[in-house]
Amino acid sequence: MFTPPRHTLLILLLPSILVFPSTLPAQVAFPASPLARQDAAGYLQPLNKSGVVKYKVIASDFATNQAAAIGKYTGHRITVIGRVSHLSKGHGENKILVVTIQDASASLPAVKGEFRYGSIPDNSEVQISADKSVATLISRDGSGNIVSQSPFLSLDQTVAIKGDFSEVSVGDIVLTGCKIIPKERLPELRNELKSSQG
Asked: pTM of the full predicted structure?
């Protein structure tokens, strides 16, 4: 019986190893190609000058035509207005908090806002309650003693989160470098949306 040399077997198996990698990346960043930008212009309403968008609009854009949505939002710092559906601690890259915006039905993609140090005051931290319903901002003095505690975010609260569109990860729309727009500005942002649509 003929047995091919080992190096022949390796050469025969190499294409299948390259074509079928054993692990795929969990998240993929999408550059906006000229074609994606053309798709955005052809299929989706343009982003307004102030970059303010309702959750349902951005989520529908990605659900309807992901390539066009990537073309529309890539390279923009946007403000998403929507309902807080989940709060969690951030992991890695100095992420201190991840805020998920999604409607109660969860029928459209979620928007995940990643907050890093610098998005909250110095000598502060964010603590999430055991039931993950409230995020509290805790300020400390130079010795590490708690000076103040104030509610930061809670589930079902309507918020405006400003961040840079980063990628689509496991179906979620990811914004990085996020900050919370003060709730007092929500009426102003909604008026900007109305004027840009009308």
From this structure: 0.77
